[in-house]
Amino acid sequence: MAAMNVMFDVLGKQRIQRVHQDFGELDSLNDSQIRAIYRFSIENIVYIADLIREHVERPTKRSNALSVEMQVLKALRFYASGSFQQVLGDVICADKSTVSRVVRDVSNALTSLESVFIKLPTTRAKKEKIRSAFYQQGGFPSVIGCIDGTQIRIQAPSEDEPLFVNHKGYYSINVQAICDDEGKFTNIVARWPGSAHDSHVFRMSNIKQYLDANHRTMADGLILGDSGYACLKYLMTPYLRPTSAQQERFNGCHKRTRVMIERTFGVWKRRFHVLHGEIRMKPTRVCAIIGACAVLHNLAIMLREPKMDADGVIETDDIPNNALYNGHQDVATGVYQNSAFGLAAILPMKYTNAIVLGNNLSGVFIAVINLLCSAGAPDPKVQAIYYFVVAIVILLVALDAYFLLPNMKFYKYYESQVALAMTNSESPSSTSFGQTMGQFKDVFLKIKVQAFCVWFVFFVTLAIFPGVWSNVKRIDFPLSDGMFVGIFCFLSFNLFAVLGNLTSEFIKVPGPKYVWVPILLRGLLIPYFMFCNFQPGTGRTVAVLIESDYAAIFGGIILAFTSGYYSSLVMMYGPKLVEPEVAGKAGMIMAFCLVTGITTGVAFSFLLSVMVNW
Known about the structure:
It is built from 23 helices and 5 strands.
C-alpha cells in the first residue's frame, strides 16, 4: 500500500505545502543556499520526508526524538558533504552516534523505494520515447539504456580485505548502473567488492536474467556497454578493431550515445559528494548509502532540481545555451552601428575598419566577463548585477565617445575636406527628396558588389553564430557543455574575428572586383555546421555527419576569421569607390546592408533549427 501511495504521488498527485517548525533554522537562507547545503529546495525536502515518514518516524517523543524532517536534513547534509563533522557543525547539536544512526535509517528507508523510483521502462510508449531521445543524441537506434560500472571508494574493511581492492589499487564497491536518456537510473547494483569485473557483475545480476527471459526483438530495446562487456542480442558493444567505414561509424554513434552513463555518474557524484571521497563505514552500510543516493538522484531529476557541483554551485549547463543569446540584441546593435559607420565614412579607410575591430573586441570583452562571472559568481542574480553595472559603464563611455568624435580636430579636418569637395562640385547645395534618393541610387550602383558582400558576410555569420554554433554539443571534449560553448563558441569567435580585422590592415586580397568570390564560398559553412552535432536532443532527424569536436572548433575558427577579415575589407572598399562628397551616403548604404544581413541571418538561424528536425 505504501508503494502504491508513492507511485500515485510520482504520477502527479499535488503535494501538500507544509511548513515544519524544524525548518525554522532555514528561514535565514535563500533558495540557492538551501540547495547548496541540502541539494534540494525546502518544498522537495518536505516531499522526501513524506515519502519515508512511516519508515523513520519515532513512535514517541521520548528523549527528544528527532522529527522526520530533521532526520532528512541531517542525512541530506551528509550525502552532500560526505563529512560527519560538517553535519555536526551545520545542523542542531547532536553527537556523532546520533548522526550515524540517522544516516543509517534514512538510507535504508530510501533504498526500500528503489523498486518505485529505479526501474526499466516496460511500456511501449515509454520505450519509444527513450529510443527516440537516444537516437537524437547519438544516432544509435533502438537504445533504451546505457550500462557501465563505477568505483565508490571505501575504507579498508575488517573482513575479506583483498576482495575490495580494485584494479586501481584502492578499496571500493563496484557499482553497476543503467541510465536512460534523461540521466535517470533504471537499474543499479551496489553489492560487489571492487575487485569484481564489470562483466561478472552483469553476468550475476538480476537484470541480465530479466533481459534473457524477456528480450525477443529489437523492438524490446538495446543496452549499450563498453568493450568490457560481452556482446549479446540486447547488449551492444563497440568493435575492438574496426576495419571499415561502417564499423567506424557504428563505433562513433555508439560512443556518442553511451557517453550518457558517464555523464550520469559525473552528475551523481558531484551532487552527492559522499560518493566522491572515501566512505568510512562498513561495506553493507556503504551499499545502503549508494542506493539512497541513486533514489535521490532520480528524485532530483523528476523534481527538476538543478545540477550541482561538489561545492553546491548550480552548474551553468542547466541553463540552455540559447538562453544566453537573444537574436534581437544583434538587430539592435546593428541599428546603433549604422550611425557609427555613417560618421566614419568620411574618414580614411583604416578608421572604418577600426569600428569593425572595436565591435569584435567588445565581443571578446563580453565573453571574458561571462566566463569570469560564471566562475566567480555562479548565482545568476549576482551575475545579472555584474553584467548590468558593466553595461552601464560601457554605455556611458560609448555615448561620450559618440558625441565627442564630431568635435575633435582630426574629424573636423576631414569633414571640412568633404564640405570643400561638395562646394567645388556641380551639385547644388540643397536638393529635393527625389534628388537625394537619386544620389543614393547612383551611389548604390557603384558599390552594389560591396553592398551585397557586406550583407552576405553578416548573413552567413549571424545564421551560424551564435544561434547554431552555441547549440553544437560536444561529443567527448574534456570540458563541461557550458565551458565548451563559452570558450570555443563565444570567446574563440571574437578572438579570431579580431585577428581577421587586424589582418585586413596588412593584406587586402582579393580586390574590390573579385572579393565576392570567397565571400560567396563562405555560404558552405551553413551546411557544414548543420551536419555537426547541432541540437542532438531536440528531435533532430538530419544525420550527424561531422562527428568530431575538433572539426566543429575548426569550422568555428574559419567562420570567425573570415567574418572579421571580409567584413573589414568590404566596409573599407565601399566608401572609397565613390566621390568623397557622397562617401557618407556610401557608408550609410553599407551600414544598412550590414543591419539587413544581421536581421536576415538571425531569422535564418531560427529556420535552420527547424530544418534539422524535418
